[in-house]
């Protein structure tokens, strides 16, 4: 049997296991392991005496992946950014942010939902992990929205969707991982995420206000805060801005000098400052332990998917499918823009069944070179390119598009990590409720992605200044 | 994830074993969290050393790589106990009673096969880096300061072994539920807690769905 | 026979001999023996020896400095200031050491057999800021350098700072390191030359050693004709590699001019000083440490020097 056929059978088997309810990480790993056994046995022409050899080699090959792939400096950002989220929660910073947002802007239609979006966007400037952001704001914003009569599904949906902003607005673990996979400048990519992130927040806001104006009894405005109360809400949220400024200096020094370190270090320093604030505001061992356990839980969950998917990716490598795929893409006779749109649609479909980082690890080694080739190669000038931008800019633009797609897949059923996390925080809200509530935001994300594709300058303006 | 499922307990041997293993799993998860915290401290030390005293932490990356398996893998069984690894529950969510326990039994058995294989595979990975006759027992070292890698590699089969124990308990729990036709079996993560089920039913009666 | 070959990164000067080898072998066996070269699809670069040991693939490239404890014997080739001046000399000393029984024995632990080397020129520094001409100016310098080269800079007060090669550019831009030691092709492919203000032309502190190995069982399972085709193609592949890399080196001066990078020549006195502090003591320390572990360290070290002398006498 040729390797493409094996690849299709194994992939089909994985989908069946996922549908039957096997945990996604394990379904991917099991499919990868079975695929490896198959490929190695195929190499020995299915001689029965060689089955033991094929099993051994496949198991040992798969057994390298968990340690080998997890022991990575690049991925060390993930636990750090999850930790910062929980520490900020115990430092009262996220609540302060939400409170300030509420007092200043909750008077608009859909007020608390809009406040949630803005508080989350503000917090996104400190947090680099969408799931942790959603988990933290689920604890703060949902009770308040329920108290003024929001539908619980919509309240949960707002938090799940707004949480995704953390991966576009810098810092962002997933953008750093993209930068490392494709070997592009991390600083410029992070910078490029800022405007699309803020842009997404405004699209969400527009959607919420629109819904509030048309659907009766939907998210009443919250009014009656005095100017005094408004200004009083600012100081408790201030430390967030200090952390934001420090992180900015680690990513990119606005005064033109060297940045102070790497984004990885910036995240860690930010977490440390938040930790000090939390201790100062009364966090003790019991709360710290809770934060550490929650960090462990989310980190392990994400990393299990990562190594599970990478065992499957290792199988794809042995089956030589990536080469077959990129040959196929570059041989297509459609316009580059058409192919790009098809790739983004494929991400939307794939993202239904994948988590964000797993999806990037699975696809980028194949898709990224294909997209760069579509544009005219790594060293193409803007004038000669298919998308009207040089190679570096294309890498940045595509990175932001892909990360936005990855964010989108965090909220799409049946495997939308953010929705699982929000449902996990609230015992009274099921995953199905969250998926129901988040649906309007698919539309908002669709609009955002279409605009980012149509007007690349939204993405490229800021990094082109740097 | 976690909150939508919960693990019931009773006076049976199975439940006792479940709770004993849970102690180990919690301990492992706490180690995961502590090392995540340690990662942050390491970065602070490295940055202050470099920018403040022109003395960067030697082998910073080597230490990160040594920490990561503790953070990312050690807690795997803790998450499995509480049903925290994500999955699609369209099919299992629609099943009830024996059909549900059978489906859970089959997928859990598949995971046990996988993890048993990976205990072997990851042990072999550790074993290749370990040599009793070498200094520090090391036959694989890190790039910068030559840290032995075997301790970090050993974390994986240990964590996976505990996960296998957990999976065996869960198979026992699902098998028992299947044979006895139980509604709320102990020692397995239930898709919805009893309280939630009650709430869901109440909602259903009100006709809101 | 079809072999899987595991290398990493992208196709570059550093991997051209592998492609040439695959081409020659296929030609000589009329397509009976083919090689499927995979860039990172089969293994992580630091685990290529593991993959060979398992038998997951039949041929692989790795670098000694990635994991000294996996390959203690050949780390002799990464010692600073061995005095290797040309790529041809690097090939000669590498292959002499690879043929030593201690190396074969250590590689056999990984079920691996040395096939050929991937010779690299001396790892010179690119740096940002004011050019450093004196060894005393290396004090406090944050340098990205691994293995013996890192040790050499440590000996004169530098601080070896670990970042992966793919993050070297970012580390330089953000000031995490102020200098990076690479071979020329890596300064080009990892972009460190774009960030540089100066390049040391004659510091020549040492290089890294990256062999190509084959799985012993797979090698033994080849037909006589196939094995003959493989063995006889090594020299030709290396020759091709040297030509190709030579072209890159002749282009190098033009690259420096184009990027406005200053070429720093360090005086003979300064070089002698560096060598005195970082050459001999580190070499002797290596011999002592490896001998204590039962390695014929002195023999390996002498082998390098003898081979070097012979190669020069032959020319
Ligand atoms: Na962020
Ligand atoms: Na999804």
TrEMBL record, chain A:
**Keywords assigned by UniProt?**
Cell inner membrane, Cell membrane, Membrane, Transmembrane, Transmembrane helix, Transport
What GO molecular functions are on record for this protein? transmembrane transporter activity
- One Gene Ontology cellular component annotation held by this UniProt entry: plasma membrane
InterPro entries xref list: DctM (IPR010656), TRAP_DctM (IPR004681)
Bilayer topology term: Multi-pass membrane protein
Transmembrane ranges, per UniProt, are 20-41, 74-92, 112-142, 154-181, 193-215, 236-255, 267-286, 298-319, 331-350, 357-375, 395-425, 437-462
Return any one Pfam family short name: DctM
Q: Where in the cell is it found?
A: Cell inner membrane
Record's superkingdom?
Bacteria
Q: This chain belongs to which protein, by name?
A: TRAP transporter, DctM subunit
* Species for this entry: Puniceibacterium sediminis
Lineage summary? Bacteria, Pseudomonadati, Pseudomonadota, Alphaproteobacteria, Rhodobacterales
Automatic annotation (TrEMBL), chain B:
Its domain of life?
A: Bacteria
Gene Ontology, cellular component aspect: plasma membrane
User: What protein does this entry describe?
Assistant: TRAP transporter small permease protein
Asked if the keyword Protease belongs to this entry, the reply reads no
Q: Name one Pfam family in it.
A: DctQ
* Subunit structure, interactors included: The complex comprises the extracytoplasmic solute receptor protein and the two transmembrane proteins.
Q: Which GO MF terms are attached to this record?
A: transmembrane transporter activity
What is the protein's membrane topology class? Multi-pass membrane protein
């Amino acid at each position: 049997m040729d390797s493409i056929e094996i690849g299709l059978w194994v992939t089909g088997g994985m989908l069946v296991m996922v549908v039957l309810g096997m945990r996604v990480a394990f379904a991917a790993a099991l499919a990868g392991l079975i695929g490896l056994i198959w490929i190695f046995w195929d190499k020995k022409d299915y001689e029965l005496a060689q089955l033991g050899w094929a099993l051994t080699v496949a198991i040992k090959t798969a057994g390298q992946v968990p340690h080998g792939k997890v022991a990575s400096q690049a991925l060390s950002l993930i636990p750090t950014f999850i930790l910062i989220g929980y520490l900020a929660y115990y430092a009262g910073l996220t609540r302060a942010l939400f409170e300030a947002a509420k007092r200043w802007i909750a008077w608009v239609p859909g007020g608390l939902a809009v406040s949630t979006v803005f508080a989350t966007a503000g917090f996104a400037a400190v947090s680099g992990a969408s799931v942790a952001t959603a988990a933290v704001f689920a604890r703060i914003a949902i009770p308040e929205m329920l108290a003024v009569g929001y539908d619980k599904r919509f309240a949960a949906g707002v938090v799940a969707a707004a949480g995704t902003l953390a991966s576009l607005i810098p810092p962002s673990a997933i953008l750093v991982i993209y930068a490392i996979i494709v070997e592009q400048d991390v600083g410029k990519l992070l910078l490029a995420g800022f405007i699309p992130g803020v842009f997404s927040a405004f699209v969400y806001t527009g959607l919420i206000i629109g819904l509030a104006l048309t659907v009766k009894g939907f998210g009443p405005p919250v009014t009656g805060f005095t100017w005094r109360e408004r200004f009083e809400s600012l100081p408790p949220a201030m430390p967030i801005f200090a952390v934001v400024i420090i992180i900015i200096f680690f990513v990119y020094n606005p005064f033109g000098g060297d940045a102070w370190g790497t984004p990885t270090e910036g995240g860690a320093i930010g977490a440390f400052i938040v930790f000090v604030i939390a201790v100062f505001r009364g966090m003790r061992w019991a709360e710290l332990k809770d934060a550490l356990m929650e960090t462990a839980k989310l980190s392990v969950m994400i990393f299990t998917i990562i190594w599970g998917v990478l065992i499957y990716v290792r199988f794809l490598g042995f089956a030589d499918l990536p080469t077959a795929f990129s040959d196929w893409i570059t041989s297509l006779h459609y316009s580059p823009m058409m192919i790009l749109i098809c790739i983004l649609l494929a991400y939307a479909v794939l993202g239904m069944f994948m988590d964000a980082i797993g999806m990037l690890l699975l696809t980028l080694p194949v898709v990224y070179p294909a997209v760069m080739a579509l544009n005219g190669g790594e060293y193409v000038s803007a004038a000669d390119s298919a998308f009207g931008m040089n190679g570096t800019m294309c890498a940045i633009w595509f990175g932001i598009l892909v990360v936005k797609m990855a964010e989108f897949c965090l909220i799409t059923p049946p495997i939308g990590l953010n929705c699982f996390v929000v449902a996990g925080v609230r015992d009274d809200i099921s995953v199905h409720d969250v998926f129901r509530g988040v649906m309007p935001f698919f539309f908002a994300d669709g609009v955002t992605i279409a605009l980012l594709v149509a007007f690349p300058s939204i993405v490229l303006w800021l990094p082109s200044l740097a | 994830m976690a909150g939508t499922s919960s693990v019931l307990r009773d006076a049976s041997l199975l439940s006792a074993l479940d709770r004993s293993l849970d102690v180990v799993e919690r301990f492992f998860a706490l180690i995961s969290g502590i090392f995540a915290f340690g990662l942050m401290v390491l970065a602070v030390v490295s940055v202050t050393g470099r920018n403040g005293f022109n003395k960067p932490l030697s082998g910073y990356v080597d230490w990160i790589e040594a920490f990561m398996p503790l953070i990312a893998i050690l807690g795997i069984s803790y998450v499995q106990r509480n049903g925290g690894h994500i999955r699609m529950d369209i099919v299992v969510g629609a099943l009830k009673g024996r059909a549900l326990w059978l489906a859970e039994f089959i997928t859990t058995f598949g995971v046990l096969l996988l993890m048993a294989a990976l205990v072997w595979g990851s042990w072999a990975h550790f074993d290749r880096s370990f040599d009793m006759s070498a200094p520090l027992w090391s036959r694989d070292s890190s790039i910068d300061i030559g840290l032995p890698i075997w301790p970090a590699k050993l974390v994986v089969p240990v964590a996976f072994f505990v996960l296998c124990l957990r999976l065996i308990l869960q198979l026992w729990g699902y098998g028992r539920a299947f044979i006895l036709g139980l509604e709320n079996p102990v020692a397995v993560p239930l898709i919805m807690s009893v309280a939630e089920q009650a709430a869901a039913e109440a909602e259903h009666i009100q006709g809101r769905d | 026979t079809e072999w899987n070959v595991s290398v990493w990164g992208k196709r570059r000067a550093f991997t051209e001999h592998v492609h040439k080898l695959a081409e020659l072998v296929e030609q000589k066996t009329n397509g009976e023996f083919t090689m499927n070269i995979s860039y990172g699809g089969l293994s992580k670069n630091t685990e290529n020896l593991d993959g060979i040991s398992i038998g997951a693939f039949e041929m692989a490239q790795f670098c000694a400095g990635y994991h000294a404890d996996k390959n203690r014997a050949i780390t002799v080739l990464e010692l600073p200031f061995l005095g290797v001046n040309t790529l041809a000399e690097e090939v000669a000393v590498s292959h002499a050491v690879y043929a030593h029984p201690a190396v074969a024995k250590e590689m056999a632990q990984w079920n691996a057999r040395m096939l050929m080397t991937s010779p690299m020129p001396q790892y010179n520094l690119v740096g940002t800021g004011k050019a450093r001409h004196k060894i005393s100016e290396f004090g406090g310098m944050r340098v990205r350098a691994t293995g013996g080269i890192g040790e050499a800079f440590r000996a004169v007060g530098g601080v070896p700072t670990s970042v992966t090669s793919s993050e070297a550019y970012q580390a330089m831009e953000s000031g995490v390191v102020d200098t990076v030691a690479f071979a020329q092709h890596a300064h080009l492919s990892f972009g460190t030359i774009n960030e540089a203000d100066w390049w040391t032309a004659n510091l020549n502190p040492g290089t890294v050693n990256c062999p190509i190995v084959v799985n012993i069982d797979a090698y033994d399972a080849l037909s006589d004709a196939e094995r003959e085709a493989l063995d006889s193609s090594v020299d030709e592949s290396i020759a091709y590699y040297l030509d190709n890399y030579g072209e890159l080196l002749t282009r190098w001066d033009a690259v420096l001019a184009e990027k406005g990078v200053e070429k720093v020549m360090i005086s003979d006195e300064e070089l002698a000083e560096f060598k005195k502090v970082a050459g001999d003591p580190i070499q002797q320390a290596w011999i002592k440490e490896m001998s204590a572990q039962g390695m014929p360290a002195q023999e390996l070290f002498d082998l390098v020097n003898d081979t070097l002398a012979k190669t020069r006498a032959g020319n």
